[in-house]
Each structure stands twice: as C-alpha cells, then as structure tokens.
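User: Teach me something about this protein's shape.
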Amino acid sequence: MRALLQRVSRGSVSVDGQVVGRVEKGYVVLLGVGGGDTQAQADRLAEKIAGLRVFTDEQGKFNLSLLDVGGGALVVSQFTLYADARKGRRPSFTDAARPEVAAPLVDYFCTKLRGLGVREVQTGVFGAHMEVEVHNDGPVTLWLDTAD
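Assistant: First, the predicted structure itself:
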C-alpha cells in the first residue's frame, strides 16, 4: 500500500459538486492499493499513520501524533499512486489492485484507523471522479509505502 500523507488545517472531497467528506486538523491521506496488498499491509500503514509524530508541540518540534492532537483523517482512494510512467507517455496502472480487491482494503484501512482511536475518519467515494481540496499545513507531506 502507498499513501501520500498531507498534514492539513482542513481538507475536503467532493463528488458532482457535493462535499462527501471533510476533515479539519489532521490528515488528507491519498491511499493506493497494490495488486498484492493484504490486511497486514493495511494494519501496518494505519498504525504508522496514527502514531507518526508530525504535529508540533509547544516548542515547535514534531513530537505529537494524530492521536495526541485529536485530529481526523480524510482518506481518498487513489489508484494512480501505482502509476508506472517509465516508458512512453501514458502511465501504466498494472501494479494497482483491481477495484474488487482495493475497495474492501480501503474500507478495512479506514476501520483500522477508527479502531486505533482516530477521532474522525471520512472518505471519498471509491471509483468516482473526485475533487480534493487540501489546505496543507506547513506544508508537511510524506510518502509512505509498505514495500519499503
């Protein structure tokens, strides 16, 4: 699994002009599921994201996690994180999981975040054309990959 994690002051996702998910202080997580991914990768990634210390303490140091600050997560499925653009001009997405595999793993990942104590977990709509609004705080953006 791959995640592009953005610390945000706020973020939202819309489908057909309607907001379907939003978060205030916390993360926007663009989440990609690879062809061989399992619940074990989702567990590991959710635990990493919930506990990652990229929120500042009173001294301005990255010492606080999403759980420490009571932040939320907006999870948006994004198969394009598995794009392979090494050849030609059109990316290949053969490494991305098929929708029937990816959708349940995205749901499982969100359930895991909630189970770890993340205050609020919202999502986009799997497979829909979405508009994502991100107010990146810092900016702080991290790339996480369970294969690493």
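Now, about its shape. The helical segments are 39-51, 66-69, 99-115. Residues 35 and 95 are 6 Å apart (CA to CA). If you'd like, I can walk through any region in more detail.
User: That's plenty for now, thanks!
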